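Whiteboard transcription, Tuesday session. T.W. wrote the structure tokens on the left side:
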């Protein structure tokens, strides 16, 4: 590791009066977890984005807890919990307002596993709590590598992500100079960037994500290390890359992150569909960001399907321009040709693939004004209709498709909604939301 990071085992401790984090800003679930661990005699720290974002005056996405209690001991303290993970077992404590992830201090700098629900083969059942009641060796025979708080801080990716908030005295513990970097708006790799990026290439994407999301500057060495290690991103597990991609698309700043990916040469490597979308990509992602920032939940199928819209709008434009009836089998073939090569690389689930294909196909129906009320009724009741409608809204708002039939469909849908409300005695009828197959998308760290 480089010498420019203070690695003294004695950390800088910032007492409560000298920082801005208040318990009121921490979710009740995370507080319960911290207090129960602490009252049971363990160290209990908040860590990661929760601490970083609170110090920056932002709302954290989630709260992660780290402790010296072992997974089995944590599990014993929380009935509403389960142990997950293959190599590194973590405990998920379930609350009504979300999951609090509790990890035991670790020494290993190894990359995290694919997040929950994004395993290579998606075999959630293997992760059933009963299989891990005993904190013995992991299923692959490896001993979990637990460590000290200092080791745990040093194995993290960036200094601003390695700050601990200590529930026992409300202080912040900083082993890596993160507080100073945070105040100066600097993103600094813990250790030597080349080594850390080689160890886990996904950290390169994370660096760009934080640069954009936090508006931080990359410290010297990061750009060069990305330059040298860029292609290694292709060695990362597809599940982790797909997760990064989807998280980026739903970050609310996807335009900025994808632009950074393009600038640093990642877009072609990990999302060539989007790289080929050209200028239209920025407009489409701009709409997605606007929706996300208005708290509209955009399903994974829509996020991933967006990359196909420019090419598909072109195909559709040609089909419509040819006049007469659209040739459905030919359109389905064109969709398969467009989407199929991406399925494995983007880790698209069977269900999302179905939604994307049907959504794109149904877009062809939405390109002509609705004929009869029955047609509207039939389509709206399909599981994939919200996806098709989102594609249509996206393509129209981004200027890829003309607005005319869209406006007619919007009116027809409003009429349908009103009709359904009358029939249902006041119960508003909305298209069924798409089913979520992948539960609790969270990174494992
Ligand atoms: P977000 O706001 O996106 O949740 P976060 O910093 O909390 O940001 P997570 O992916 O939730 O990011 O991870 C939690 C913490 O785990 C990080 O802050 C960091 O300390 C550590 N971490 C995550 N991924 C890695 C990695 N690839 N290498 C090293 N440490 C990591
Ligand atoms: Mg987090």
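and on the right, the sequence the group agreed on:
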């Amino acid at each position: 590791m480089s010498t420019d990071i203070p690695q003294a085992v004695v950390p800088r401790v910032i007492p409560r009066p000298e920082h801005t984090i208040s318990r009121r800003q921490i979710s009740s679930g995370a507080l319960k977890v911290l207090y129960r661990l602490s009252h049971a005699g363990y160290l209990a720290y908040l860590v990661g984005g929760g601490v970083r974002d609170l110090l920056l005056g932002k709302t954290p996405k989630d709260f992660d807890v780290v402790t010296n209690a072992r997974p089995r001991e944590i599990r014993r303290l929380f009935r509403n919990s389960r142990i997950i993970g293959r190599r590194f077992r973590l405990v998920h404590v379930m609350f009504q307002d979300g999951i609090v992830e509790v990890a035991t201090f670790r020494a290993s700098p190894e990359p995290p596993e694919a997040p929950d629900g994004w395993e290579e083969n998606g075999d959630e059942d293997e992760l059933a709590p009963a299989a891990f009641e005993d904190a013995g060796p992991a299923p692959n025979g490896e001993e979990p590598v637990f460590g000290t708080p200092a080791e745990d801080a040093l194995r993290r990716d960036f200094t601003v992500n390695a700050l601990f908030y200590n529930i026992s005295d409300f202080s912040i513990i900083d082993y890596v100079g993160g507080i100073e970097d945070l105040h100066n708006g600097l993103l600094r790799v813990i250790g030597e960037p080349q080594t850390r990026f080689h160890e886990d290439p996904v950290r390169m994407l994370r660096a760009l994500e934080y640069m954009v999301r936090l508006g931080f500057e990359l410290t010297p060495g990061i750009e060069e290390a990305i330059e040298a290690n860029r292609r290694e991103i292709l060695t990362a597990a597809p599940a982790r890359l797909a997760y990064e991609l989807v998280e980026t698309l739903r970050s609310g700043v996807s335009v900025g992150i994808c632009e950074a990916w393009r600038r640093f040469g990642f877009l072609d490597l990990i999302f060539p569909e989007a790289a080929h979308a050209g200028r239209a990509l920025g407009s489409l992602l701009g709409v997605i960001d606007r929706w996300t920032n208005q708290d509209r939940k955009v399903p994974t199928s829509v996020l991933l399907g967006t990359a196909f819209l420019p090419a598909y709008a072109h195909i559709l434009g040609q089909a419509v321009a040819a006049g007469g009836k659209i040739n459905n089998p030919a359109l389905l073939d064109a969709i398969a040709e467009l989407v199929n090569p991406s399925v494995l690389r983007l880790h698209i689930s069977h269900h999302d693939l179905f939604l994307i294909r049907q959504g794109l196909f149904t877009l062809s129906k939405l390109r002509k004004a609705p004929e009869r009320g029955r047609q509207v009724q039939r389509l709206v009741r399909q599981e994939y209709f919200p996806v098709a409608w989102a594609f249509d809204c996206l393509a129209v708002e981004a200027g890829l498709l003309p607005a005319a039939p869209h406006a007619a469909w919007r009116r027809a849908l409003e009429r349908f909604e009103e009709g359904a409300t009358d029939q249902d005695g006041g119960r508003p009828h909305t298209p069924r939301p798409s089913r979520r197959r992948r539960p609790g998308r969270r990174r494992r760290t």
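Someone added at the bottom: The longest strand covers residues 98-104.
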